[in-house]
Design a protein that fits this description.
Blueprint lengths: L8 H4 L14 H8 L4 E4 L9 H21 L4 E7 L9 H14 L4 E7 L2 E2 L6 H10 L3 E5 L5 E2 L2 E2 H12 L7 E5 L5 E2 H12 L4 E5 L1 H14 L7 H7 L9 H6 L6 H5 L8 H9 L6
Parallel strand pairs: 1-2, 2-3, 3-8, 4-7, 5-10
Antiparallel strand pairs: 6-9
Length: about 290
Amino acid sequence: MRPRRGRTEADIWDVPVNLITGTIGDTEALHRAMVGVHTVIHLAAAPPWAGARALYDVDVDGARNVVAVARSVRVGRIIVLSHIGADRASAYTLMRVKGEAEEVVRRSGLAYTIVRCGMIFGEDDRTINAVAMQLKASPGVFFIPADGDTLVHPLWIEDLARALVSALDNLDTVDATISVGGPEYLTYEQTVRTVMRVTRTPRALISLQPYWLRQATWVFRRLMPRPVLTSQWFDRIAESRTADLNSMSDHFHLQPARFEDTVRTYMPGRHYGRELIRYVLGRRPY
């Protein structure tokens, strides 16, 4: 992890840490990071604009690298972040890759905890903020796949972080795959309408077959270094993927925040038009 420009370690963590820079493919850096460590929390994932090859390289091969190094330095346990719906037999690339990465961890011989989460949102996310940027770029209308009735299960990033920390001392989570989400289910349409309301960006919602929207992502991917509309995005909302509403309370004794209450603390007043330009013109590593 690298601090943002102008920030130091002291700005991010309350205790001293060793900051080691490297990639998921750099086994020497992984070795330096894991020596003397009992528990590894593995959060690395391909960026939202990554294609199938990059997804596999980062998520599956990356998991293999982490597991191999963890075993070599005798790490005691690995905690891995995944997605609700991860399945090696899934028809959707993102979920299939996540399922393969999970299987790498389960077969590693290490004690593990796999946390499958719903749609993560937060001040710097690339999911809900992507909706806000798409709304800003849409001239009066906004296309939603099919009827927009797919259920999503939003989870605030800070609640997820608290759950991962709680898992460190919770023996009931060892060798378990746990699905978690926030305190409510929302349809994709409700999610979009909430973002419109909070950002004051009203648009007419128009239903369009997912096939045509996926074709649009193919075009955007070739025109922009980092498109907001991606195949990964549609893989996430292609089917209803939810956990039990009491999942955070049952597993981690936490009460997660509601979606609209939370986005209202950081979305209003943001200049999503400028953010969109900076995002799509940014350098893409894949």
